[in-house]
Design brief:
- By secondary structure, the protein is an alpha+beta fold.
- It has two domains: about 70 residues; about 60 residues, no CATH class.
- About 50% of the residues lie in helices and about 20% in strands.
- It is built from three helices and six strands, in the order H-H-E-E-E-E-H-E-E.
- It has a six-stranded mixed sheet with strand order 3-4-2-1-6-5.
- The radius of gyration is 21 Å and the shape is elongated.
């Protein structure tokens, strides 16, 4: 059972590491573009290009800060903790779908099972937190029951 938690945690870690690398590469590319931008005879065009690169760099910086928060959230999870109530790091089986309460990373597959990796801050995450086995949840007019928590 903990094996599923380990696998889900590992997949989330790979997801965040990949996003972190992608954003860092984008920032380096923008930095290189800014450094290689030379003053042309069309001065206004040059300034517009630099301004656009600066905006892209700011946007990438915000994305980097956001992924850093996600990595910190993931680091708070202990894969060895098992609880009777849903909390950060829980694997939740329901009559409708399976969830991993960690970070928003989309659908993750472990063997034949699919799990929605969701942040506890998402609407469905908020509904699941502090619930127990056999609790009924209603989300977007769909009701389902928690069948197992790891």
């Amino acid at each position: 059972m903990i094996n599923i938690k380990e696998q889900l945690y590992h997949k989330c870690k790979i997801f965040t590491d990949h996003r972190f690398e992608t954003i860092n590469k984008a920032i380096k590319a923008i930095q290189n573009s800014l450094l290689s931008e030379t003053k042309s005879s069309a001065g206004d065009k040059h300034e517009t290009g630099r301004a656009m690169l600066q905006l892209e760099r700011e946007k990438a910086g915000k994305q980097l800060a956001e992924i850093q928060k996600v990595k910190e959230q993931l680091a708070k999870i202990s894969i060895s903790n098992v609880s009777d109530i849903v909390k950060l790091g829980s694997v939740v089986y329901t009559t409708q779908a399976n969830y991993y309460i960690a970070i928003s990373a989309g659908v993750l597959k472990v063997e034949e099972d699919s799990f929605y990796a969701i942040s506890p801050n998402t609407p469905i995450g908020q509904l699941l937190l502090s619930k127990c086995v056999n609790d009924q949840i209603t989300f977007r007019e769909n009701s389902f029951i928690i069948t197992k928590i790891i």
